[in-house]
Amino acid sequence: MRTCVVVLAAIVLGSGVAAYGDGGMIPFIPNVQLFEPNQRAVIAWDGQEEILILSTDTYASTPTKALEVIPLRAEPTVKKGDPEIFEKATRLINNQNSYRRPLSGAYGGAAPSAAAPAPAGAVTQHERIGRHEISVTHVLDVNGFCTWAEKYLRSQGADAPRVPDPIRVAVQGYLERGFAWFVYDVVELGTTVRTNEPIQFRFKSDCVFYPLVITQTESQHVDIRILLLTAEYLWQYPELPRDHIRVGLQHSPNAQNIAQEMVVLSRRQVQHLSPDVDALLGHRDGMKLRIWTLIPEMRGRFFHDLVAR
After folding, report:
1. Residue 36: exposed, middle, or buried by beta-carbon count in 10 A (0-12, 13-18, 19+)?
2. 24 found inside a domain
3. Is residue 114, in this structure, part of any structural domain at all?
């Protein structure tokens, strides 16, 4: 099936502490609790490329920096995302009465030498965006990658960094599946909730992809929502079971049919939503927008990624 998709993504991962949110979170200060109570993202997929726009709310029990690890299917380019895109998409859904109750608040938020061993990773892009210090990392050696990651953390100011075992296992799994690109996002956290600036990633992908296996949280309730825009229906879901993908809010009682609940947008509406998304999707009418909620498979954990075609 020829498809064009816009997906929103958020990845949650903990480091033996209570962590809620996207990415594998590693605190720079040991035993600090990290929290990401809300995640919002948008992705566009045209069958060959994906745009992912991601923002999260974060705070910590003690002010600290933290590293989030996000695996991607190919090398991404990175830039600042539009902070209004989430509210724009939500208004489009509400205005056309796609759901039986409004989604108000669902997406709220403020704005070496020859004798030395070869490096296990290489940073190909580095960007400072608001509170984010982002490095796009290419894995060159699987066995030494976690050691290389800990060295990178020390270079960013961590005293005694260690990649937690759940993250180490998840990263190893991605590496064994052929993933070679990871985004490292160092962000400063305070003790009150703050909304991080949205980041836009663009990368090659032959499917709608949202990394969930790296989600390791102590919370039994993980709130992950996706704004999804497609030219056609998606029929193939080879990894995350379809009964863990629900339309609308997580507890919406009549939002089970993920193939049908949607609003249809004109090219002008998609252009207003995001010029980059409009360009990726071919400047066309008839794009179908809906909101997905991803339900953990067991006790706040995912054992499959979101993959759809």
Report:
1. buried
2. yes
3. no
Position 153 in a domain: yes
Q: pLDDT value at position 84?
A: 92
Query: Per-residue b/e over 165-183, b at no fewer than 16 CB within 10 Å?
Result: ebbeebbeebbeeebbbbb
User: What whole-number distance in Å separates Cα of residue 45 and Cα of residue 203?
Assistant: 9
How far apart are alpha carbons 167 and 14 in whole angstroms? 8
Q: How many CA atoms lie within 13 A of 147 on its CB side?
A: 9
Of 122, 30, 126, 12, nearest to 69 by C-alpha is 12
Geometric angle at alpha carbon 222, from 27 and 91, rounded to 5°: 110
Taking the model in full, what pTM does it have?
0.80
The CA angle 53-243-170, to the nearest 5 degrees, is 55
Query: What does residue 211 show for φ and ψ, rounded to 5 degrees?
Result: -75, 115
Tokens of 77: 């380019």
The number of folded domains in the chain is 1
Digit-coded pLDDT (tens) for 27-50 = 788 778 777 777 777 988 888 999
CA-closest candidate to residue 188, choices 130, 135, 108: 130
pLDDT (tens digit per residue) in 264-290: 899 999 999 999 999 999 999 999 888
